[in-house]
Amino acid sequence: MDIADGKFAITGGVSMIGANIAEQLLEAGAREVVLFDNYSLSTPDMVQGIVHDPRVRLVRGDILRINELYDAFAEVDGVFAIAGFLTLPLSQNPFLGIAVNVQGMLNTCEACRYRNVGKVVFASSVAVYGETEEAVTQEHAPWAWSNQQPGAALYGGSKIIGENIVRLYHDRHGVDSVSLRFSSVYGERQHYRAVNSVYIMDTYDRVRQGLPPVIPDDGLEVHDYLHVADAARAAVMAMASAVSRDSFTVATGVSTTLNRLVKIILETMDSDLSPEYRTAAGKVRSTVSKTLKFSNRKIEAALGWKPQIPIEEGIARLIRWRQSTDNTV
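The chain above was modelled as a monomer; its predicted structure follows.
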């Protein structure tokens, strides 16, 4: 699908990922970009640098109200299905979280069928692998959920359902689709809802206040931190490609320990604080693996995507953005 001169809709359009996708669509010459969002987890302030572009249309709506999707998807070529509950808010409100992630995706795909949308790019997650024990986790790895916290398992399960909803609409109605299994996305416009990425913001906030960062357990827990610009680029490339009915891991392939992450944050902020090691009781956590490693070979082979922003640069960019917002308050 050609991005230039195309019309695209983004559910969750004022989210961190949605806003970055919009920026890249505009840079690629899209004719119109519809930012569809109910503002429950974000505000139009997130897209201040975008909404003044005459090609951007901001639409307040909810993916649980299918009639609003019918209206927003009129004459749309492709939809980026980004709206959804992450692990932390889903743990706090499972009734609404499961409804949004499951019924909301059904509504999104049905509206695509009704409006003859050519393709859906679905924001899935590496949560579909659960507490994986694979040496290198690839797309065919099974879902290992039995040792996860309930909220994390419910979130992963909802993403598995979402991937199969878009496949079902491919098979029955010819709506092309790609599911992107994002690792821990972070970056400018960072929010406080993603379990792993919120740890970056919590650490930044403590250091800014002159408090030592807190590292759970021994700090050897690892995550694959993906900068939002790399995540958005993968989504746009997936939309532009001829690939359909497939799922891809979108990750750097680099495992970063919490010890290393905190060290990067402290160095970036020129802080000489020393971290404290203690584990908060009842804290929601997605995985606590010390061996997590994801493969991005499949998406590189199919789409030509590779990560471009290393963790050191990404954290520096995030902190510069956050400091700029702090200075305007």
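The radius of gyration is 19 Å.
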